[in-house]
Amino acid sequence: MHFQKKYLPLILGVAIAAGIFIGGKLNFADAPDRLFTSNSKKDKLNRLIDYIEYDYVDDINTDSIVDVTVNGILENLDPHSVYIPRGDMERVAEEMRGNFVGIGVSFYTYKDTIAVIRPIENGPSAKAGIKGGDRIIVADNDTLYGDALEDGELVKKLKGPLNSKVELKVYRKGEPELLTFKIKRSKIPIKSVDAAYMLTEKLGYIKINKFAESTYREFKQGLNKLIAQGATQIALDLRDNPGGRLDITEQIIDEFLEDDTLILFTKNKRGDIEETYATAKGDFEDGKVFVLIDENSASASEIVAGALQDNDKGIIVGRRSYGKGLVQREMDLGDGSAVRLTVSRYFTPTGRSIQRPYDNGNRAYYEDYFKRVENGELTDGAKIEVADSLKFTTPKGKIVYGGGGIIPDVFVPVDKSMNNETLSYLKRRGVFGYFTFETLEKDRKAYDYYTRKTFIDNFTVGDDLLLEFQDYLNVRTGSNITFVAYHEEVKQYLKATFADQLFGNGAFEEVINQRDIMIEEVIDLSEQE
């Protein structure tokens, strides 16, 4: 606090100068050859930084001051213009790319050792013979155990250049000596399609958790599989999906809309409009689609829902979406960092913007979510506030609204039984995963005779296993939690976690959806068609 007060005038001065500097660089009205030319405002910033570095009485980390300053400037623009520091660029790039280079294992640190939960399907570790329950002890003579090692450090030791090799020494229960595996690192997918399977004989289900570079390819593979299995309807689950790449989103929408149908348009500060239309490549134009959204579906998820809703294609099911209608462009700042700057607004085909107002500042903007909870709109669709001045009409005469998210055609309240405070707390603490891993470790061979299908169809979590879990978490958390009111919900989540650690590849979603009231609503709607 003393530092902040002492150097506040300095930081504010740099902030003002940096604002002028960045504002000059991001003036897109300038021609490219003029965009980065020097002027007195930029010279002023450079001179100020030089004075601080060479003449100021105390040593100051000017890099950190500039980082703080850039963040301060962006916070005063809009809620979604963000700064990406140099240290975060690789992780952010991997997320948007949809892959990273590594050995392909899902793991967590268990008793100071890397414990493999499951090798990633078709990844280098799976092909080499790594199994769930293995402990990776050594990688190229570097020990990978001990209290001092954090997950970030462990990941760095397992990552490396594409096609580089790493020698692992692995402890496996029942083996007298450490096993040695030589693994060639490869591109490991960060899956954005969590599941693709049939809900009924005619209704397929696809869940997308984000829109990355690889998402359309994953989606297309899932869609083709479901079509081959007889799907004439698709439930597209975009709940909790925060968005991502606009170009990938447009390709997915294109699968559902007829040729030359408007998908969306964007408008920048100069009023330039760019329209995007469906092409001839869609494979599900004649099929029925249900889009599942909730209060955490944002940006690209809302583009999908809005484009289909405005074109009278399918049914939007769930709760009002987040309300983000701004488009960002990533721009390099020259030192390995970048800024994602809002450069335009997007509009649905009827012309509505679904961006929530942010006139009262970013804090008020983010607190609007809690107001929705307090107002009761997550449990009662009639309490969703709409503005008649933002009313629009689809080609078939349906009324839709702008001004703050996509309002579903069919409202489904939040399921309090599966979203109660105790369950949410346990999920955040990760105890379901820890308990499942330790239970499997006692006798993994007991689960060998299960196939994915027989496990999902026939495995049940009995009362004895539920009591074991209750005792386990009370010891682990030091609390006294009981499940009197929601035995079945906890059993369902335990079964889904077991399915995930044993089989992966969407098994969790396939189990958890068996008690999902929104899925039940979609199945009912499907049967009415």
Automatic annotation (TrEMBL):
Domain Tail specific protease: 176-357
Keyword Membrane assigned: yes
Pfam families referenced in this protein's UniProt entry, alphabetically: PDZ_2 (PF13180), Peptidase_S41 (PF03572)
GO MF term (any one): endopeptidase activity
Keywords attached to this entry: Hydrolase, Membrane, Protease, Serine protease, Transmembrane, Transmembrane helix
Domain PDZ stretches: 99-174
A GO cellular component entry from the record: outer membrane-bounded periplasmic space
Spans through the membrane: 7-28
SMART domains in alphabetical order: PDZ, TSPc
Domain of life: Bacteria
CDD domains assigned to the protein according to its UniProt record, in alphabetical order: cpPDZ_CPP-like, Peptidase_S41_CPP
InterPro entries in the record: ClpP/crotonase-like_dom_sf, PDZ, PDZ_sf, Peptidase_S41A, Tail-specific_protease
Any one GO biological process: signal transduction
UniProt similarity note: Belongs to the peptidase S41A family.
NCBIfam families xref list: prc
Protein name (Swiss-Prot/TrEMBL): Carboxy-terminal processing protease
Organism for this UniProt entry: Jejuia pallidilutea
